[in-house]
Amino acid sequence: MKKLKLAIIGCGSITKHRHAPEAKQNPNVELVAVCDRNLEHAKAIAEKFKVENVYDDYEKMLREIKPDAAVVATPNYLHADATIKALKHGAHVLCEKPMATTEEECKAMIEASKESGKFLMIAHNQRFNEAHKKAKEVIQSGELGKVLSFKTTFGHGGPESWSSDKPDTWFFHKEAAVFGAMGDLGVHKIDLMRFLLGEEFVEAAAFVTTLSKKYPNGKLIDVDDNAVCILKTQSGVIGTLTASWTYPGSEDNSTVIYCEKGSIILYADPKFSMIIRYANGQKAYFELDTMQTNERQTKSGVIDEFIDCILTNTPPNISGEEGLKTMKVVFACFESAKTGKIVRIDY
């Protein structure tokens, strides 16, 4: 079988640790080009992964290389532009989260995918974790009765410790990132809870703020470093979501789902990625996988899923439309934080 020609736009840490190695490991992929506006970053990735073509202009790369597929892993403000241009040049696109910075951009990306006839997939990798997939099966089985509530958290010490342009990383600058911890980490957990619960959030109340992170000059960063949100689903499930860049020392990437007949605890134990705690006091332990962290990278499955969708001509489950639904919740949380009101989410 002829290999798919894949190009990567954006050569930061996520490309170095996930996208490039996973592309090289896929037998159906030929990684033909990498691009970054910082040419030195692109050259470093090309050298490490033995990629022949290196660019600092993605339009030129798309025009000259004509890849079958592209990964967009740029700073957030370029997600829509790079995605739309790649689609218009005939490439299927895997776009990093957050999908885009406005609802209008998200819709434009979806429209470009439709017009081009090419797939658009958003890289919400937590859907591929084994414990998350198992938890969804348990919820759907009805074994624990209906879901009543949840709490989900994603917090670590901040991107300045691992970003390719540390310490004054683009993640801290509003013109490049637009969002802070809420768009970087909270978006993961919103998508995960939509996946696990199988329904949409319809109301949001949130505090999204900057508490601690500073630029090298000592001034507070101009994007959020902490967010605490209360979310409500169509059926009335309520829960809390926390996203933070100010958890020193260790990462918390855990979720607890409270049901009528027990609780599901995910990635809160160092050995057991899922624990079911039944109402009668009994427990069931599942040693399924480990949560990926910036320090400990394992195969996420995102690239493999993306490539498989293309090869089998199967639309991706995490489509642009799915990405927009997740982003609607993100936007609602920011609106709630700004207005001090509960925000209704309109689909």
- Strand content of the residues, in percent? 15-25%
Shape: globular
Poorly predicted ranges = none
Based on CA atoms alone, the radius of gyration comes out at 20 Å
Helix content: 25-40%
- Which strand order does the major sheet show? 14-13-12-11-7-10-9-8-15
Helical run tally: 10
Order of helices and strands: EHEHEHEHEHEHEHHEEEEEEEHHE
How far is it from the N-terminal to the C-terminal residue, by CA?
Answer: 41 Å
Helix vs. strand class: alpha/beta
Calculate the mean pLDDT score and round it: 96
Instruction: Characterize the biggest β-sheet.
Output: 9 strands, mixed
Number of strands: 15
List the helices and strands and how they pair.
Layout lengths: L3 E6 L3 H13 L3 E7 L3 H11 L3 E3 L2 H8 L3 E4 L6 H10 L3 E4 L7 H14 L3 E3 L7 H12 L5 E9 L18 H4 L3 H17 L3 E9 L16 E8 L4 E7 L10 E5 L2 E5 L7 E5 L4 E4 L15 H11 L7 H20 L3 E2 L3
Parallel strand pairs: 1-2, 1-4, 2-3, 4-5, 5-6, 7-10
Antiparallel strand pairs: 7-11, 8-9, 8-15, 9-10, 11-12, 12-13, 13-14
Helix pairs in contact: 4-5, 5-10, 6-8, 8-10
